Automatic annotation (TrEMBL):
<comment type="similarity">
    <text>Belongs to the TRAFAC class dynamin-like GTPase superfamily. IRG family.</text>
</comment>
<dbReference type="GO" id="GO:0016020">
    <property type="term" value="C:membrane"/>
</dbReference>
<dbReference type="GO" id="GO:0005525">
    <property type="term" value="F:GTP binding"/>
</dbReference>
<dbReference type="InterPro" id="IPR030385">
    <property type="entry name" value="G_IRG_dom"/>
</dbReference>
<keyword id="KW-0378">Hydrolase</keyword>
<protein>
    <recommendedName>
        <fullName>IRG-type G domain-containing protein</fullName>
    </recommendedName>
</protein>
<feature type="domain" description="IRG-type G">
    <location>
        <begin position="36"/>
        <end position="221"/>
    </location>
</feature>
<keyword id="KW-0547">Nucleotide-binding</keyword>
<dbReference type="InterPro" id="IPR007743">
    <property type="entry name" value="Immunity-related_GTPase-like"/>
</dbReference>
<dbReference type="GO" id="GO:0016787">
    <property type="term" value="F:hydrolase activity"/>
</dbReference>
<keyword id="KW-0342">GTP-binding</keyword>
<dbReference type="InterPro" id="IPR027417">
    <property type="entry name" value="P-loop_NTPase"/>
</dbReference>
<dbReference type="InterPro" id="IPR051515">
    <property type="entry name" value="IRG"/>
</dbReference>
<dbReference type="Pfam" id="PF05049">
    <property type="entry name" value="IIGP"/>
</dbReference>
Length: 221
């Protein structure tokens, strides 16, 4: 982030202080870069599991009130954007209200709505995006992927959440560590890649973030 010196700057440093000065300057820049926060926006439709993902990435225990709140089912939960700093990393995850949330009035259908959303949550200032989806893929994710890559000129990774819920489509192998497991995962990846088309995701992550609650009678949900 603008810490790069020009070729002339480097020549000057070399002339004045020799190789040692150059190496020292390089080290200094590296240190500075480490201190620069990297803003990662977690974006996607309401109820897709964005807040759950942030809780997992930052290691919040299930009942820690400092982590982002999670919706009860598919209800709209997050209504304002909030930053979560990952200690000792410079990584800042931004939990955004879901697209499609009516409480937070976040719609992304028309270009005007896209611009409104982008301005409201300052998407121009974001360094990287995690595009979260629970439905494998649909038009909304396509719009978002296109917006991130074409309009904002940024990169993103695609996060497929609720893999456990894709059982109907892919069968039990989706959650069982058997021979079919890897094949099914590859299938899901290929499906996502195909649907993304030219808005290429840097990486595709498949996650199982089901919160397991132990009920009072001892049964797990
Ligand atoms: N089965 C299953 N449920 C999940 C998974 N990840 C999240 N959920 C559930 O999905 C619901 C919504 O999760 P949230 O993390 O609140 O979703 P969100 O994207 O932050 O929603 P908004 O804040 O409304 O945009 C909650 O009931 C979660 O427990 C998963 O991997 N598997
Ligand atoms: Mg949320």
């Amino acid at each position: 982030k603008n810490l790069q010196l020009t070729e002339d700057d480097w020549r000057k440093i070399l002339r004045q202080g020799g190789v040692k000065a150059v190496l020292e300057k390089k080290k200094e820049i590296k240190e500075q870069e480490k201190k620069q926060p990297v803003l990662i926006a977690v974006i996607g439709q309401t109820g897709s599991g964005k807040s759950t993902l942030i809780r997992r990435l930052l290691g919040y225990q299930p009942n820690d009130p400092n982590g982002p709140a999670i919706g009860k089912s598919v209800e709209e939960c997050t209504t304002t954007s909030k930053e979560y700093h990952k200690p000792d990393t410079g990584l800042v995850y931004i939990d955004l209200p879901g697209i499609g949330s009516t409480t937070a009035s976040c719609s992304f259908k028309s270009p005007t709505e896209q611009e409104e959303y982008a301005t409201r949550f300052r998407l121009q200032t974001i360094d990287y995006f995690l595009l979260v989806s629970q439905n494998k893929f649909n038009d909304q994710e396509n719009l978002l992927a296109e917006y991130i890559t074409q309009k904002l000129n940024k990169k993103f990774s695609f996060v497929q959440t609720k893999m456990d819920a894709l059982r109907e489509e892919y069968g039990n192998q989706i959650i069982e560590e058997n021979e079919g497991f890897q094949a099914v995962k590859n299938m899901v990846r290929t499906d996502i890649q195909n649907k993304l088309g030219r808005s290429n995701a840097e990486r595709i992550f498949l996650v199982f973030n089901r919160v397991i609650k132990v009920e009072q009678n001892g049964q797990q949900e």
